[in-house]
Amino acid sequence: MKSIRVLALCLCMSVSVAPAVAAELVDPPSIAVPAGRDAGAVAKAIKLGLAQSQWAVAGEEPGHIVGLFTLRTHIAKVDIRYDTSQVAITYLDSTNLKYEQEENGQRSIHGNYNKWTAVVASNIATALSRSDLDTVDLATAAPAQLRAPVNPPPAERFSNFNRFQLMPISLEAPYAGQDPNERAAAKIAEQLGIGLGATLESWNGKAAASPRLLRIEPRIEQIRFIGVGARIFVGAMAGSSSVTLKVRFVDGQTGTLVAEPSFTVRSAGSKSAFGVGDNLMLNRVAELVQRYVADNYNEAVGGMQSPLP
Predict the structure, then answer these.
(1) How is domain 150-304 classified at the architecture level of CATH?
(2) Which of 27, 117, 173, 265 measures 20 to 30 Å from 77, CA to CA?
(3) If the chain, 309 residues long, is cut into consecutive pieces of 10 residues, what is the mean pLDDT of each piece?
(4) pTM across the whole model
């Protein structure tokens, strides 16, 4: 009997960690706007619904808002079109969500996507019906732990440039010369080269009559990296790893500073068994940089300083 119970427990655990099966992508039904709401109130309700659903605003113009959801390496973007009669949410883009579209037009995606967008739609509908919508403070609408600091937009969109150069990562005193920090810096540089480097290579391959260079200069401003040895022998008592990476985007011809975003990621010591969480932190800070570059290519929108929990 005991062996049966153990087997059942193992089966439950295997189900809980198994990747979700792709499902048909279904956009949420259009949301009716209550009578009397003007366009400004509708836009505010959309932003409130996004914030309460742990989504961010990645772009905005009259009648149109782009919603962005990030969970570790998973990214979802939706188009939200609105007027004073209805709000429509449609799929825009995604990363690591197994999106596919068949020849017949049928779309499939990670099963959680439909759940995430359903929550957004529900929260927007609720916000539209709030009697106190006019007085709601969007800056504090989401729980504090869900409000990630935001980097401002660059001075201009990155697609105004047609040549991109990723410079070596800089690690300065007092962090330079310490073996764990040097290895961590090398790991971040490796991840930047793999992800961001591939993106820049594709952009550099485009023909340009008059090349305009954007130089990307990553610099580690602060780092505390707990190595695997210390994590194994001391565990959570070694504390948390953390890193702050500042990246300068400089016009290669004029030397003008285009942007200088800062990215901070921490690894909880209690969740860093065998150094997994510490190393994941290095991957995540590189992903934030890559996401900032990609999101600001077609439009200057800024981006998150830290990943959401």
Answers:
(1) 2-Layer Sandwich (3.30)
(2) 265
(3) 41 39 90 95 94 85 90 84 97 90 92 93 95 84 56 93 96 88 94 93 87 96 71 49 94 97 77 60 91 90 74
(4) 0.57
